[in-house]
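Task 17 of the worksheet. Students: predict the tertiary structure of the chain below and write it out as structure tokens. Keep your answer in the requested format; marks are given for formatting as well as content.
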Amino acid sequence: MQDVLKGYAAAATADFIAAYDGLAPESIYEHVIDLFPSRNAKIVDIGAGTGRDAAWFADKGHDVLAIEPVRELREAGQAVHTATNIRWLDDRLPELGAVVPYGTFDLVTLCAVWQHLTDEDRAIAMPRLATVAASCGVLIMSLRHGPGAVNRRVFPVSSDMTVEMASACGFRLIRRQDANSVQAGNRAMGVSWTWLAFEKVR
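Model answer:
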């Protein structure tokens, strides 16, 4: 995982950040947006990047914890997204050790993160996600299929295996949707996504 973080740090140019922030959350989350809480929720955005999605959630009145291990991205986000209902945290998968004092969350999001973990790290990460999600809370993940960017290694992701892993950790599948990438460049490379949404039932 450390090499992936270094890759994102090296890529964190002004153009990269502008392109990242330029993607509309409404388009990114099109297939699961109806599952988001309507108001006054605690949300944790794991792999928050520059806080694009965290700011969007905060603007809707939610309290958001934005977790981002890449300093360059985190500091760029802190400079731009200054809402008082966004807190920033330097933490990372698979352990998520620093998030424990913040309690549990009504919504847990991992957008374009899971593909950077090995199967071994995913086996560690999923139980951690289960401890972060509140009872009846929702976990939403996007799984990337296809090649990754240079210097930001990705690993093959099995949707079925991810569902099984989540089920073993007390999650119930409530949505599974395959989708094309919203980015033309990714589509040209053959990148597609699977959106998974779970409810924490035990």
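Marker's comment: Helices lie at 2-11, 14-21, 25-28, 52-59, 71-80, 119-132, 159-168, 184-189. The first helix runs from residue 2 to 11.
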